[in-house]
């Protein structure tokens, strides 16, 4: 900071301009270094806070019975040509404890995803809007369990009593989540599982127009209650829908997807 006034003084007197320019560059570089250092410290502090929130919420879940069950689940995934994914998850939970203050869920990418994309991941959660009521946002906190898996905590405005219900809508943006899939380099999987049996779970995955998509079910067999469809929507985009009923607890289900060159 002391360098900049000296440079201004030298230039004002009409002295040698090259040294002055060098000092300005050096001062600017030092300032940028301070900015990078401050950002790194801020990011480290945020990461520590996220780990603490994760630890304490996990403790509440495991030791003090903060439990819930998912009543129904619908996840819409809109995959863009560049591999970005926009997700909307609508689900209803039922409290299985005396007072439920928060719920959590995890999501992940399935490839060697560059860490720089973490900054661009977005998560917003709101209540369901019905008849002009609802649609307001909840506070959320997130923590990376590893380089590919993100855990999100939704902090409810008011405790939900035992057997009470709350319906939520989650909007997520994942940059480059499906890039290998959309470039034809490798297939991808969209999978989900729940801690308790769930009556109804649904996946709807949409691709850009012109893509040739192949799909296999995962975790489901002929005797299970499910329906799988592969159609073009009204805009000509491939749309894959999986509807599963009475899914057992901790049973992984979903879709394996692949694309062919356009």
Structure description:
- It is built from 3 helices and 13 strands; from the N terminus they run H-H-E-E-E-E-E-E-E-H-E-E-E-E-E-E.
- The chain has a 7-stranded mixed sheet, with no helix packed on it. A 3-stranded antiparallel sheet has the order 3-6-5, covered by helices on one side.
- The longest helix is centred in the first third of the chain and has 47 residues.
- It folds into 2 domains: 57 residues, no CATH class; 196 residues, Immunoglobulin-like (Sandwich).
- It is of the alpha+beta class and 262 residues long.
- It is globular and about 50 Å long.
Distance between the termini: 56 Å
Element-by-element helix/strand order: HHEEEEEEEHEEEEEE
Q: Give the helix tally.
A: 3
At the first level of CATH, what is the class of the largest domain?
A: Mainly Beta
Largest sheet: 7 strands, mixed
Task: Present the secondary structure layout.
Layout: H1 3-12, H2 17-63, E1 68-79, E2 85-95, E3 99-108, E4 122-127, E5 139-144, E6 149-161, E7 165-174, H3 179-182, E8 188-192, E9 198-206, E10 212-218, E11 226-232, E12 238-247, E13 253-260
Parallel strand pairs: 1-9
Antiparallel strand pairs: 1-2, 2-7, 3-6, 4-7, 5-6, 8-13, 9-12, 10-13, 11-12
Helix pairs in contact: 1-2
Features of the shown structure:
single chain; 262 residues; alpha+beta; seven-stranded mixed sheet; three-stranded antiparallel sheet; Immunoglobulin-like
Summed up:
This protein is of the alpha+beta class and 262 residues long.
């Amino acid at each position: 900071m002391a360098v900049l006034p000296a440079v201004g003084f030298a230039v004002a007197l009409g002295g040698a301009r090259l040294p002055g320019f060098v000092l300005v560059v050096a001062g600017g570089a030092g300032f940028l270094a301070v900015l990078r250092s401050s950002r790194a410290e801020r990011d480290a502090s945020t990461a520590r806070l996220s780990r603490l929130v994760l630890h304490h919420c996990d403790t509440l879940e495991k030791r003090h019975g903060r439990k819930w069950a998912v009543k129904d689940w619908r996840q819409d995934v809109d995959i863009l040509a560049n591999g970005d994914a926009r997700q909307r998850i609508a689900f209803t939970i039922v409290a299985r404890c005396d007072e439920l203050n928060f719920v959590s869920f995890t999501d992940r990418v399935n490839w060697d995803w560059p860490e720089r994309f973490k900054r661009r991941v977005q998560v917003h959660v709101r209540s369901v809007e019905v008849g002009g009521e609802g649609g307001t946002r909840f506070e959320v906190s997130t923590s990376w369990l590893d380089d590919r898996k993100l855990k999100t905590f939704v902090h409810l405005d008011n405790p939900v009593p035992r057997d009470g219900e709350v319906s939520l809508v989650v909007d997520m943006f994942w940059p480059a989540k499906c890039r290998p899939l959309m470039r034809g380099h490798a297939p991808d999987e969209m999978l989900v599982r729940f801690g308790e049996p769930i009556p109804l779970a649904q996946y709807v995955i949409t691709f850009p127009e012109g893509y040739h998509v192949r799909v296999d079910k995962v975790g489901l067999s002929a005797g299970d209650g499910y329906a799988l469809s592969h159609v073009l929507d009204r805009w000509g985009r491939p749309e894959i829908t999986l509807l599963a009923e009475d899914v057992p607890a901790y049973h992984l289900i979903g879709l394996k997807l692949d694309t062919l060159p356009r």
